[in-house]
Design goal:
heterodimer; A: mainly alpha; ABC transporter involved in vitamin B12 uptake, BtuC; elongated; B: mainly alpha; 77% helix
Chain lengths: 317, 290
């Protein structure tokens, strides 16, 4: 415990801690909408697809800056969503196959570019492979500032457009009917997912950043039926996992941040599955027991009154 | 000689994955294939930590167990009311994270490289030889993959009719008394086997490319299941050869190049497929219009 406090008193660590917590918060919030729109795995695809974008951005400029990577990865992510849409519209392949193709195709390209960078004469390339699993400790102050601004922006947009996003998540047809620009809003939401994924890559890594979008949202769904509350709970779960992930990975050497963060989120998910108030396993088991009890009680009463009726009938005879 | 072994290994991977990928694509379970290829990771690592060697039956069994566990968990969460894609996402990221944490905690003690699991090192295949009574029998990976390919072909060949029916009409299959759930788990078990035997050569992440992309390419070219399997394997083998050539030219990751090559083949099929390609469709439209 003392270790954690001494670690937190280090200003650099404070920044990283803050950045990861904010990241968890914003991805948790956005994850809710993509979960309700049944697009959870889109985050995974976009994260994998971002790798070639990052590599190309690095090859073109030769600098490791999160801002440039954001642009490269954002472009690659948009290309990937476009590709998925194009494949599903023009062939008989379903969305899952299209996602698999785009995901592995882009990731393969990313690996090729990564090895090209490693074998080529690009100076200062060390640490680019940290993007695969994330190493929050490798972030510098300016990265954290960029990340915090991006996360703040995401949260603001979600708050401002909450009503619109809510409507397109539940009833896109109705939203179109009352004149919302649904296609535009859907694209915007997709763009927000891309931004969240890219912002998370340095902290959590390409392979696992999708979990930050999916797991907190699914866990929050166990606790409530109201979207507003779900978004808040999901954000808190995300922030908690981000914080735990950073602390754990900083205190044990050689432990990447991404997997620890994901495991923390999974732990919260496990707790939610067990203890969720109406959907949780324990609540369900209790409910079943209660229903069984009341059913047998009713049956007994019925049998008793039935027996009474029989007696009365006999008496009447 | 090394080139021969690399190409042979790649072709065997393409064979294993090509056959299974067809069923994954047809049953709309491409992303479950992706999930399994990630989540066998803890199985591989645990078996490696227990046995200390890379080529054991234990590894196969552990990966098989984790593959089936993944399928089971996904099914369970789906039935408890979580959307199917979200349950896939939760399960595989959690298992993969466990695998990565195990590797990073214990990687110092054993010789297991994170990168080797993820992207594979097909270039080193011919150094890891299997010796029987002092005589070199060729690379171990080739034997392992050959064995897997035989198992896959045998199972699919024996139950071809059942797999076919389950792929196209699971309800009818259940109605006439085929144990659909059993065949589902059998298929997933085979996918885990294929993943673990290919992880050394193409890696746990890129194996999903070999599973899905060639099968999708074949899906665009034909409407018969038998032909589709053949085409899928052919597309996989072709991308192995093209990918290896490109990797030698560019001095880049062989596994990455193989997946890129198969993606290029898919794009070619997407554009120029005689029945469903974009170009063919455009030409047909023009003919109809005139």
């Amino acid at each position: 415990m003392n270790d954690i406090w001494s670690m937190l008193s280090d200003p650099n660590m404070q920044w990283i801690f803050l950045g990861c917590t904010l990241l968890g918060l914003s991805s948790g919030i956005i994850g809710c909408f993509s979960y309700l729109r049944k697009q959870s795995l889109m985050g995974d695809t976009l994260a994998h697809a971002a790798l070639p974008g990052i590599c190309i951005a690095f090859m073109l400029t030769g600098v490791k800056s999160i801002g440039l990577f954001l642009i490269g990865a954002g472009a690659a992510g948009l290309l990937a969503t476009f590709g998925i849409g194009y494949i599903t519209r023009h062939t008989k392949l379903k969305q899952d196959a299209a996602m698999g193709i785009v995901l592995s195709g882009f990731f393969g390209l990313g690996i090729v570019l990564l090895t090209l960078i490693q074998h080529g004469d690009y100076g200062n390339q060390a640490g680019l492979d940290k993007f695969l699993f994330g190493q929050a400790a490798s972030m510098i102050a300016s990265d954290v500032v960029t990340m915090s601004i991006v996360c703040g922006l995401l949260i603001t947009v979600c708050t401002l457009l909450f009503k619109q996003f809510k409507l397109i998540s539940f009833d896109a047809g109705f939203a179109r009917g009352i004149g919302y620009p649904v296609a535009l809003l859907e694209q915007l939401l997709m763009l927000l997912v891309v931004v969240a994924v890219v912002a998370g890559i340095q902290a959590v890594g390409v392979v696992l950043v999708a979990a930050l979008l999916i797991t907190p949202a699914v866990s929050a769904r166990y606790w409530t039926d109201r979207l507003g509350l779900m978004v808040v709970i999901s954000g808190v779960f995300g922030a908690l996992s981000g914080a735990v992930g950073t602390l754990m990975s900083a205190s044990v050497s050689n432990l990447p941040t991404g997997p620890v963060t994901v495991l923390a989120a999974t732990l919260l998910f496990g707790v939610s599955v067990l203890f969720g108030p109406t959907r949780g396993l324990i609540a369900k088991r209790l409910l079943r027991k209660q229903v069984k009890k009341s059913f047998t009680r009713e049956n007994e009463q019925l049998a008793k009154s039935g027996a009474n009726n029989g007696v009365k009938k006999e008496a009447a005879l | 000689m090394s080139e021969f072994w690399i190409l042979l290994t790649g072709s065997l991977v393409a064979g294993c994955c090509g056959i299974l990928g067809v069923f994954l694509v047809l049953r709309k379970m491409a992303m479950i294939g992706d999930a399994i290829s990630h989540s066998v990771m803890p199985g591989i690592v645990i078996a490696f930590l227990l046995s200390g060697s890379r080529d054991s039956l234990l590894m196969m069994l552990a990966a098989l167990a984790f593959g089936l566990l993944t399928t089971f968990l996904i099914q369970m969460f789906q039935q408890s009311g979580i959307q199917s894609d979200a349950s896939i996402g939760v399960v595989f990221t959690a298992l993969f994270a466990i695998g990565v944490v195990l590797v990073s905690l214990f990687a110092r003690q054993v010789h297991l490289d994170q990168d080797a699991i993820l992207y594979g090192e097909i270039a080193y295949v011919h150094w890891n030889l299997w010796e029987l009574g002092g005589i070199s029998m060729g690379p171990k990976a080739v034997w392992l993959l050959g064995f897997t390919l035989i198992v896959i072909s045998a199972v699919i060949g024996l139950f071809y009719k059942q797999f076919k029916l389950c792929a196209f009409d699971p309800a009818l299959a259940a109605a006439i008394g085929i144990p659909v759930a059993l065949f589902h788990y059998l298929l997933m078990g085979l996918v885990s086997m294929a993943t673990v035997s290919s992880f050394e050569s193409v890696g746990a992440i890129l194996v999903v490319g070999m599973l899905i992309i060639p099968a999708s390419t074949a899906y665009l070219l034909t409407e018969r299941l038998g032909v589709m399997i053949g085409l899928s394997v052919a597309a996989g083998v072709a991308s192995t050869f093209i990918g290896y050539g490109a990797a030698v030219l560019l001095d880049a990751s062989i596994a990455g190049c193989m997946v890129c090559a198969s993606a290029l083949l898919f794009v070619a099929a997407f554009l120029f497929s005689p029945t469903q390609g974009i170009v063919a469709k455009k030409l047909r439209m023009r003919r109809l219009a005139s």
